[in-house]
Amino acid sequence: MAGATPALPESFYRRADHVLAGTDADLARFYPGDAGARQPIHTCYIPADLVTVDTPTQWGAAALSAADAAGGLSALAELAGVDAATPDDLVDRVSRKLHDEPIEDLRLDLEDGYGERPDHEEDAAAVEAARTVAAFARNRADGSAPAPAFAGIRFKCLEAATRARGLRTLDLFLSTLVREGGLKDAGISADGLPEGLVLTLPKVSSVEQVRVMVEVCLALEDALDLPTGRLRFEIQMETPPMILGLDGTCPIPAMLRAAEGRVSSLHYGTYDYSASLGISGQFQSMEHPAADHAKNVMQVAVAGTGVHLSDGSTNKLPVGDAAQRRETWALHSRLVRRSLERGFYQGWDLHAHQLPTRYLTNYAFYRDAFDDAATRLVAYAGRSVPGIEAADVADEPATARALARYVVRGVLCGAVGEDELRAAGLDPHTVRAVANPGAASSSTPGTE
User: Fold this and answer.
1) Helices (H), 269-384
2) Nearest C-alpha neighbor of 31 from the set 302, 409, 262
3) Nearest CA to 444 among 399, 402, 415, 411?
4) 8 Å CB contact between 413 and 358
5) For a surface tag, which of 16, 61, 107, 352 has the fewest beta carbons within 10 Å of its beta carbon?
6) pLDDT above 70 as % of the chain
7) Order of strands across the sheet with 233-237?
8) Residue 379, pLDDT score
9) Distances from the Cα of 238 to the Cαs of 134, 162, 266, 327, 334, in angstroms?
10) Using N-to-C axis directions, what is the helix angle for 163-180 and 207-223, rounded to 10°?
């Protein structure tokens, strides 16, 4: 009402600002929200000594060959829940993906997948891994061959038995990458590291291990003349103390605070975690109730922090006879879809034959509800504009952000084209702004 006078004096507002200043700072620092960086839809784990610069091409070819033997991608599309009457566009997109970018994120494994080797062997493998990752970056820059948008190593954990070996491997890998990779001289990188570098710290069980990892990053940045904060890492959640610590609380938030913004993602390790709880091998699964509990805790712990989440893997691989492959592809597709519906947009793939159902399922997921999401976003953007017909759902800003993020994820993985956004009445830049309000506009791997 015009002329109305507030009951509270201005001094009260100032006091509220003063009292809550610390809370405001903590929320801005520890809960910055999603920065809008691309998240890969999967991570492929391969023993480091089996990876070459040709591995992505070989995996893509093996995936297409396996699909062809099963009657083609169209025959597998039904396993991904694709309408049998209209799979052609989706199948064409997946076929192109398997040719152009068959692996989005490749982890050269120097931990469980590599095993215990003599020191001189692992030293050599760490050096060669660095050269391969540098070659991926060069191939991606010049388009000469398929290369992952993200690549790096998983080194051995910081438990006492493997600590020294893991740190030496990390040191050799990064030192070789910076000093011998040639990315700076080629104009690909300002600091010698590829943009999509990922370092994986497994089997974390205490906040102190994260603090030590931060010290390691600082020391390597200093030794290799890297900008402070350049080295980030992902944490694998494979131990019960990450879900429930000795003090009866979940230590994940404390780990993220101790990491000082260096944690990029949190990955669920299906089999180590299940085994640590005493779950028998035949019942270990991504959908076991114990797995769901752990992942629910992880999801709440990282909400709003900007840290990405990844589900784990299934160890049932489609490599047997035709019946076994079809059964295993169906399982893989169902588990991938289950993760997506629960807000886990990334998982692990352990074999090239899992790629067809990974992409078919993801592409179906992002295309299935695209029309509805686009309609609701158009209505949300224009709800105060005369002539814009309202949708049958009145979306809140938070839901509009979730819808926009769904659309953006679909674009980044190739399931949806920006031309389709425009045809639906959506401006790609506006959708990204709704998805990640306040995020800096920057090019992320794979967005060009």
Assistant:
1) 270-276, 289-302, 322-341, 355-368, 370-381
2) 302
3) 411
4) no
5) 16
6) 93
7) 308-310, 263-268, 233-237, 197-201, 150-154, 105-109, 42-47, 347-349
8) 87
9) 29, 16, 10, 28, 23
10) 30
CA quadruple 77, 82, 86, 89: dihedral sign = negative
User: Is pLDDT at 151 greater than 90 in this prediction?
Assistant: yes
Q: What is the pLDDT of residues 89-136, one digit of tens each?
A: 899 999 999 999 999 999 999 999 999 999 999 999 999 999 999 999
Number of H helices, E strands in the chain: 17, 8
Using the Cα atoms of residue 153, residue 229, residue 207 and residue 349 in order, give the sign of their dihedral: negative
Using an 8 Å Cβ cutoff, are 360 and 90 in contact?
A: yes
Q: Mean of the per-residue pLDDT values for the chain?
A: 92
Asked if residues 279 and 288 have their Cβ atoms less than 8 Å apart, the reply is yes
Strands 347-349 and 197-201: unpaired
User: 19-58 pLDDT, tens per residue?
Assistant: 999 999 999 999 998 888 999 999 999 999 999 999 999 9
Structure-token pair, residue 206 = 């205490």
Please report which confidence band the pLDDT of residue 85 belongs to, taking 50, 70 and 90 as the band edges.
Answer: low
Residue 349 bridge partners (DSSP): 44
Give this prediction's pTM. 0.92
As a whole number of angstroms, the distance between CA 135 and CA 180 comes to: 11
Contacts of 87 (CB under 8 A, 6+ apart): 74, 77
Are the beta carbons of 169 and 122 closer than 8 angstroms?
A: yes
Alpha helices in 119-197 (DSSP H): 119-142, 163-180
DSSP H stretches of helix in 181-321 = 207-223, 252-259, 270-276, 289-302
| Nearest of 214, 255, 203, 244 to residue 30 by alpha carbon | 255
pLDDT at 446: 40
Q: Smallest Cα–Cα separation from 28: which of 403, 229, 306?
A: 306
Q: In terms of C-beta density within 10 A (0-12 exposed, 13-18 middle, 19 or more buried), how is residue 402 classed?
A: middle
Other CB atoms within 10 Å distance of the CB of residue 65: 12
Does residue 387 carry a pLDDT above 90?
Answer: no
Domains and CATH numbers, the chain: 42-366 (3.20.20.360), 370-435 (no CATH)
Q: What angle do CA 132, 135, 141 make, to 5 degrees?
A: 150
Token readout for 268 is 């669920």
* d(C-alpha 105, C-alpha 190), whole Å: 22
